[in-house]
Write a structure and sequence with these properties.
Oligomer: single chain
Strand content: 15-25%
Largest sheet: 6 strands, mixed
Number of domains: 2
CATH architecture of the largest domain: 3-Layer(aba) Sandwich
Low-confidence stretches: 1-9
Number of helices: 10
Distance between the termini: 15 Å
Strand order of the largest sheet: 2-1-3-5-6-4
Helix content: 25-40%
CATH class of the largest domain: Alpha Beta
Order of helices and strands: EHEHEHEHEEHEHEHEEEHEHH
């Protein structure tokens, strides 16, 4: 692996293609750090550069027009744009249509194509540990990340139940993907699950001492996956580690969805470990 710094970018010329991530807010994003490290590792940082832009919802249509005008190569999209963005594209991948959200846009000769890589960000880390077929999975939350997770799990024939504060939202999501739904008051059931996934924002830096999961419900046989990656170890994951459960950090979702984006943007395979080390370094996590 290269010993280059993860914070400098060199080799940019007038021919360098721009990729960027958008969101509101977006300043916390580690996607530029991760992608630029990968460009440097493969020696293509003269061909691609990855930056970030804060785009407000009311300016999204103007942003898409700017992508066309400036011939921007690729866009990675985070909250709150994943649902709205797909309305402005020329073509949307059937998987992204099924999920109902786009997190990746590729400009192919002026044709803007939308994809969703978030579902692979959930499935790939889990499949490093176990087959998902017939596994009992509890998904907490019913927002955009939950939609991607439930799609991926259903695609792999897992047995899924969605738990959400607003039960009607959980039921709506469950109907789409032919699984089960319940309220947070039913979370005691997760002792019978094999995998628990938090897709809510509970556990983020502002709520770092909070978790929706009662520690008494977490057992050593569980695989616990948190979509939150700042802080690196949420209360949910700390509670899981304390009882000997297997944990998956939110950084793994970020990395694996980003690897698929990298392939879309560059047509090259992403250097996984370089991307992981760049993210961990940015978070101040030592190996």
């Amino acid at each position: 692996m290269s010993n280059q710094s993860y914070v400098t970018t060199s080799g940019i010329t007038a021919k360098t293609r721009i990729c960027l991530t958008i969101g509101d807010p977006v300043e916390h994003s580690l996607s530029p750090t991760m992608h630029n490290a990968a460009y440097r590792e493969l020696g293509i940082d003269d061909k691609f550069v990855f930056v970030a832009a804060r785009v407000k919802v009311e300016h999204l249509a103007d942003f898409v027009q700017a992508v066309r005008i400036m011939n921007i190569l690729g866009v990675s999209c985070t909250l709150p744009h994943k649902l709205e963005l797909k309305k402005h594209l020329d073509w949307v991948d059937p998987i992204a249509e099924d999920i109902g959200a786009v997190n990746t846009v590729v400009n192919e000769g002026g044709v803007l194509k939308g994809y969703n890589t978030d579902w692979l960000g959930v499935v790939a880390p889990l499949e490093k540990l176990t087959s998902l077929e017939r596994r009992k999975v509890a998904v907490i939350g019913a927002g955009g990340a939950a939609r991607a997770a439930v799609y991926g799990l259903a695609n792999r024939r897992a047995i899924v139940k969605v738990y959400n504060r607003t039960v009607a939202k959980a039921e709506s999501l469950a109907r789409e993907f032919h699984c089960w739904a319940g309220g947070l008051e039913e979370l005691g059931e997760i002792v019978d699950a094999e995998i628990i996934i938090n897709t809510t924002s509970v556990g983020l830096s502002g709520t770092k001492d909070e978790s929706l999961v009662n520690p008494d419900f977490i057992k050593s046989y569980h695989i616990c996956f948190d979509a939150v990656y700042t802080p690196y170890e949420t209360k949910f994951l700390r509670d899981a580690k304390a009882v000997g459960a297997t944990i998956i950090h939110g950084t793994e979702m970020l990395i694996h969805q980003g690897m698929v984006q990298f392939k879309h943007f560059t047509n090259q395979n992403a250097p996984e470990e370089v991307m992981r080390q760049a993210v961990l370094q940015a978070l101040g996590v030592s190996d």
